[in-house]
């Protein structure tokens, strides 16, 4: 009889119908229940079946409990130089010498013979370990107007993606084994559909993980280059009471500007609606007079 093998295979599909935590539950029979069971099983296998004190290896053999901090570094530098277009080429060379590359480059030729309003903007990707050295070299190209750097710790996000990828890999391995043992067409179709969904989700997570790793490995720097005459003025940042007062005033002006913009958009429509309303009232009054006479 085929009833027993079919029931066994259905039970296995329910157990395998999962991915790592956070994946979308399937709509197939037993999808939500199977997802929950498999998630716990995958997590147990990822931790070697040990208790809470055991170390958990992440995907690709990375130890989640001992992995170093992963930080995304981004920043911007504004310089005043004599020749912004020439300085843009120098910025590209600085990045290339440390193993980086130019991601975006915009040059604006100045007007007039002296081209005093020329400017350039260069976005470079450089190895994170070389950021300090790159900043020092950039400072040699001209006068520094401003430097802004920010760091974001993405260690937890990376570990979460690693664990979810590992859970999906375990689930896919089980589904592939079930496909080889499928005996009926319905079992085969069900397993193939679940496997396809898991593979799509795995590729999506792997793409996210690769993008995150690239942002950690390669820092992004935006370099703005201006002539001294065309450089935008940088107002000093205010803190404390004066800073709050300035922020409130700016917010008020922004709100009033937005309100005036909305009023300007609605005013023509209001005038049109008023004309239509007056015409309708006049027509109604005329019809009433005609009815009374």
UniProtKB/TrEMBL annotation:
Cross-referenced InterPro entries: DUF4349
UniProt key word Endoplasmic reticulum: no
Signal peptide positions on this chain: 1-25
Residue ranges, annotated region (Disordered): 44-66
Keyword Protein biosynthesis belongs to the record: no
Superkingdom of origin: Bacteria
Stretches assigned to the DUF4349 domain: 69-279
Keyword field: Membrane, Signal, Transmembrane, Transmembrane helix
Transmembrane residue ranges: 256-283
Name of this chain's protein: DUF4349 domain-containing protein
